[in-house]
Write a structure and sequence with these properties.
This protein is an alpha+beta fold. Among the domains are: 136 residues, no CATH class; 247 residues, no CATH class. The chain is built from 22 helices and 14 strands. Helix 5 crosses helix 6 and helix 11 runs parallel beside helix 18. The longest helix has 37 residues. Keywords: Signal.
Length: 624
């Protein structure tokens, strides 16, 4: 009876799961059990085990299938009205590598859309079903899948060869230190690579000389029976080439040069040793962390998490962090202002925007302090854009900057005799100068917001702002920002603003979380870039308690920016310091992504290595 009840329980699971679009099929052991429902003793323990294993395996495969055909549903939802509907692009976006599986999942997605009751896309789906999916019979679809199959087969073999080539190079470099490693002829390698052709339902590697270790020489397409139990997704293996442009490879600090010493520890020397290790990793096409990438450009990036996953000892990172922050202290909000801020934040949570506006009006009448006016201006703007249903998590980048970031920056950095602001369309001249050293057609970086000295043709950038909206808060802006700050320091020095105490700042807003950075160039062989503080933007009217941290950190940033704007204007009119100019080190450009074949050619130092368009202008591997 127990086995009988168990069978019916699993049957119920199968039925209800199908309503959830999991499509669980009735396993063979269950049919066996039902055929002997009156004699349950014939269902042996190993059969019962196979039954449960089969059931859960079907659950797993069905869940994967459900996940992947959601990619088709998403594409159909946004492109059903395209005329004509681009079925090739639809398959590309779903990222399948198997034609039979992709077609099955596409049909499931269309049937699902056809069942919707509140979307115009259902009419399109119903027409597709009525025509018996005629759009899947186009010749270009077969051409597309043939191309996919060929790419997969070739990539698998090339990847194996790249790994073997790297291993040989490492062994040779260990055995023959001081001498160059043996090179492998590219044409010879290509003659050994597989030639892939279609033979009915098989992709055959026709080169008899190829003997890829552990590889299958015949790649079979998935049939309908196998696709229900195996769903594969394409995986691309890319490499990054970091030594782009005319950056400096080797460096030795001059005798008697400026060094960063903390508690008798030569931080400069430790950093340059670390940078040498990073350079070797870059030559080998190893993946570099953000801190490593910046070290390659002689930028010592110092933050709370800099020590994690990097080569220098954590105690050295801590010494650098502690010493860097001695120059900057977070400026607290005055107690009489804290009282008003607390009341407004509390009113936003409980009473709503109108109550908060009444409190703000009383504060404006009672307090005319300079900082109070800044806080009041920011509150006045934010209260207008934070109604009861406003939430920053729904905003795109332009809206997020307009509603939240710009009001804060305008209040803290109004145009005056020392500074002027620029929006997202302005090209950063320092970045442009740096990039055009190796590409005279390159454009400079464009920040989302910037503050420059109000000094005509001698104007210098003192604050760069980069933003990502909350719904896309994963940002790669930090390494770009740090390299740009270094370019700005170099431009200052070249233009005559060569005071060793000059600092430029950066503000990176990754969604609601904002990080303040400062960069300087006081020592030979290293540009310091360190994190000063972090604050948050309110998400909605219930989240205004974060305003206290925002004001404290922005007070600190304002003081640093205004102080250095004045120092820059003064320094540029004083006698130039040639010693500072000799400290300038140029940077590599942004990393270039290359594929396995290009990586193979680079590792072989082939002079025939070519890349198209802008990347080709940056890379000339013949000199490596």
């Amino acid at each position: 009876m127990a086995l009988f009840a168990c069978d019916w329980l699993m049957w119920l699971l199968a039925v209800t799961s199908s309503e959830l679009q999991f499509y669980i099929f009735f396993p063979a052991p269950l049919a066996y059990a039902f055929s002997f429902s009156h004699t349950p003793f014939l269902v042996f323990p190993h059969t019962l085990f196979l039954y449960f294993f089969s059931s859960f395996e079907h659950l797993r495969i069905a869940f994967i299938s459900h996940t992947y055909h959601m990619a088709f549903i998403k594409y159909i939802k946004h492109h059903w009205s395209d005329n004509p509907f681009d079925i090739i692009d639809c398959f590309k976006q779903s990222d399948y590598n198997n034609q039979v599986t992709a077609v099955e999942e596409f049909k499931k997605a269309v049937r699902k859309v056809a069942s919707w009751s509140d979307s115009p896309a259902r009419f399109w789906a119903q027409v597709i079903i009525q025509t018996n999916f005629a759009l899947l019979e186009k010749k270009e679809i077969d051409d597309y899948w043939l191309k996919v199959d060929l790419e997969i087969a070739n990539k698998m073999e090339v990847k194996q060869y790249v790994s073997a080539k790297r291993k040989i190079m490492e062994e040779n470099s260990g055995e023959n230190s001081g001498s160059s490693s043996k090179k492998i002829n590219i044409k010879e390698v290509e003659s050994r690579l597989p030639v892939v052709t279609r033979n009915q339902n098989k992709l055959v590697l026709e080169n008899e000389n190829w003997s890829g270790s552990g590889s299958d020489h015949t790649f079979k397409e998935e049939t309908s029976s196998s696709s229900s139990s195996t769903i594969k997704n394409k995986k691309k293996t890319d490499y990054y080439f970091y030594l782009v442009g005319d950056g400096q490879w080797e460096y030795s600090a001059p005798e008697g040069g400026e060094k960063w010493i903390v508690d008798d520890l030569d931080i400069t020397d430790q950093f340059l040793k670390y940078r040498c290790e990073v350079l070797e990793s870059a030559k080998n096409l190893d993946v570099l962390s953000t801190v490593d990438q910046l070290a390659l450009n002689f930028i010592c990036f110092i933050g709370e998490n800099s020590s994690k996953g990097n080569r220098m000892m954590p105690n050295i990172w801590k010494k650098m962090m502690d010493d860097s922050l001695k120059s900057f202290k977070i400026m607290p909000v005055a107690m009489n202002q804290v009282h008003w801020i607390y009341k407004i934040n509390q009113a936003m949570r409980s009473g709503g925007v109108n109550v908060a506006k009444d409190i703000l009006n009383h504060w404006c009448s009672a307090d005319k302090d300079r900082h109070s006016e800044i806080y009041q201006n920011i509150y006045d703007t934010l209260l207008k854009v934070y109604p009861s249903n406003y939430d920053t998590s729904d905003a795109n980048e332009d809206t997020f900057v307009k509603d939240t970031i710009s009001p804060i920056l305008r209040s803290y950095f109004p145009n005056d005799e020392y500074i002027t602001s620029e929006g997202a369309n302005g090209v950063i001249q320092a970045s442009c100068d740096s990039r055009r050293r190796f590409d005279d057609t390159a454009e400079g970086k464009k920040g989302d917001y910037s503050i420059n000295t109000n000094d005509g043709k001698f104007s210098q950038l003192v604050l760069l702002v980069e933003c990502k909206p909350p719904r896309n808060s994963i940002s790669g802006d930090i390494p770009k920002l740090a390299r740009c700050l270094k370019d700005c320091l170099n431009k200052m020095t070249k233009d005559g603003a060569d005071n060793f105490d000059l600092t430029v700042c950066g503000l990176v807003c990754e969604g609601r979380q904002c990080h303040i950075y400062a960069a300087d160039h006081k020592f030979h062989g290293m540009y310091r870039c360190y994190e000063i503080g972090t604050f948050f933007i309110p998400q909605n009217r219930h989240d205004f308690d974060v305003m206290m941290g925002l004001f404290e950190n922005m007070n600190t940033l304002q003081e640093i920016v205004i102080k250095n704007a004045k120092l820059c204007i003064e320094s540029i009119r004083q006698k130039q310091n040639n010693a500072k100019k000799e400290m300038i080190i140029e940077s590599f450009d942004s990393p270039i992504r290359i594929n396995e074949t290009q990586a193979l050619q680079y590792l072989n130092s082939s002079s025939s290595f070519k890349l198209g368009s802008r990347a080709g202008k940056k890379l000339d591997f013949s000199k490596y």
